[in-house]
Amino acid sequence: MPYYAVASGRSTGVYDNWEDCKDQVHGYSHNKYKKFDTPDQAWDFVDNHSSRGQSFNTNSKALAYRGNNQVALRGDQGEVRGYQRTDYTISLEHEILLHPRYFGPQLLDTVKQKLYTEVEGTCTGKYGFVVAVTTIDNIGAGIIQPGQGFVVYPVKYKAIVFRPFKGEVLDAIVTQVNKVGMFAEIGPLSCFISHHSIPEDMQFCPNVNPACYKSKEEDVVIQADDEIRLKIVGTRVDATGIFAIGTLMDDYLGNRIFNIIVLQSI
């Protein structure tokens, strides 16, 4: 599977198909992009050639990817195969900038709290969403910034990260329904499902409150706040976020409660 790295374009990032990549570079002056065999190589290209790229310690690099229906996690502990999840605990680094007024007996506690505040809930295209910091491995010696008085503390920590993959089946909560499709949230991830990716026997009903998609027999209904099961068919990744495209056109996808009832009756 090829990966297209866009270091200079309308939206920098790594794309898993040429059409998405072309949308970012076609007609864009001074575009810079390249095709790679692995997402690791693609992200290194973005990091090294993009003004929005970020530098990461090579010892703490970790990337989850899917190959032959398996997920491999590469990082400090080598390569581990067989995982079928999109959340992982990986080693990361972050720098905390601290004002002199915090220098005191609670200094380390302040550094830890600022780490939680600054990294939890953030998203990078390379690692996905940082769900939670699990452990703080090391707080390095502070480096005084010349002429400022501020001190930078390098922190090494482990965090649970979440990154979706093409072909993955996930549970989601519907947030919006309209004639062009529906939007759903998978934790911090936003996913759009086009009406072309909704089974043909389900029609949009705008005249009911709330608006919904309903089957012809009216036994299956999907509306806002419903829990559904969907498959990821594509992702758009840039330097600061991830957006997914999903489908309900497969077995046992759609309204999760209805599918549970069907399975129990079999």
Automatic annotation (TrEMBL):
Main location: nucleus
Pfam families for the chain: Cauli_VI, S1, SHS2_Rpb7-N
PANTHER family assigned: DNA-DIRECTED RNA POLYMERASE II SUBUNIT RPB7, DNA-DIRECTED RNA POLYMERASE II, III
Name of the protein in question: DNA-directed RNA polymerase II subunit RPB7
Gene Ontology terms, MF aspect: metal ion binding; RNA-DNA hybrid ribonuclease activity; single-stranded DNA binding; single-stranded RNA binding; translation initiation factor binding
Residue ranges occupied by any Ribonuclease H1 N-terminal domain in the UniProt entry: 2-45
Listed SUPFAM superfamilies: L9 N-domain-like, N-terminal, heterodimerisation domain of RBP7 (RpoE), Nucleic acid-binding proteins
Source species, domain of life: Eukaryota
One GO CC annotation: P-body
Cofactors named for this entry: Mg(2+)
Hydrolase found in the keyword field: yes
The RNA polymerase Rpb7-like N-terminal domain, residue ranges: 95-149
Family named by the database record: Belongs to the RNase H family. Belongs to the eukaryotic RPB7/RPC8 RNA polymerase subunit family.
Keyword terms of this UniProt record: DNA-directed RNA polymerase, Endonuclease, Hydrolase, Magnesium, Metal-binding, Nuclease, Nucleus, Transcription
Compartments where located: Nucleus
EC annotation from Swiss-Prot or TrEMBL: 3.1.26.4
Domain S1 motif: 164-242
